[in-house]
Every structure is written in structure tokens, then in C-alpha cells.
Design a protein that fits this description.
Length: 106
């Protein structure tokens, strides 16, 4: 799911009944393009247990600044509106799923 407004993001992370994995990315970022299909794999495997969303840092720079995103791709996990964990850099689907599991358990 592509998030296009800050209001959409706020409503989604505050009201979602499952953890939300947010991918901060930009179209010009090669590692972001590498991780995109891995994020899609995670979304498919975790359907119903995890919601995967993307935020284009070029379109929503204020949101990137708010969360102090310094490099992309940056992935963050939210649960009931609260940030549970973050990591930066491209990684395979299995590593992304492991990151989410650890963040939610914390």
C-alpha cells in the first residue's frame, strides 16, 4: 500500500489491528528498488498478520523528517500507533520478517 498523505499514515498506524511495516523509499534509490520485491514477498506471506506500506520520501518529506529517516531504505514497525523498531538497508524477505518478529516481541 502506498501512503500518499500524512493523515493517511496517522490513521493507518493508529487504527490497524496488526503490526504495520513501513518502507521509507525514493524512486532514485537503487537499494530501495532492490528491496521492493522482497517487501512484496513479505506482504504476501504475512497477509492478515502484518500490513506492509510504502512511503515515498520525495512526496512526504515532513514525515521522513519527523521520524528522522537519515538513509533509505529505512523500515519501521508500528504497533497500535507506537514505533516498535527500525532498520536501514536492503535485505531479503526472510531477514525482513525476522526484523518484524523481533520488533513486535520487544
Amino acid at each position: 500500500i502506498e501512503i500518499n498523505t500524512q493523515e493517511h499514515f496517522e490513521a493507518l498506524v493508529a487504527n490497524c489491528s496488526v503490526p504495520v511495516l513501513v518502507d521509507f523509499w525514493a524512486p532514485w534509490c537503487a537499494p530501495c528498488r532492490t528491496v521492493a520485491p522482497e517487501m512484496e514477498k513479505v506482504a504476501v506471506v504475512e497477509t492478515g498478520r502484518l500490513l506492509v506500506v510504502k512511503i515515498n520520501t520525495e512526496n512526504l518529506p515532513a514525515l521522513s523528517r519527523r521520524f528522522e529517516v537519515r538513509s533509505i531504505p529505512t523500515m519501521m514497525v508500528f504497533l497500535q500507533g507506537r514505533e516498535m523498531g527500525r532498520t536501514a538497508g536492503a535485505r531479503p524477505a526472510a531477514a525482513i520478517r525476522e526484523f518484524v518478529a523481533q520488533a513486535v516481541e520487544a
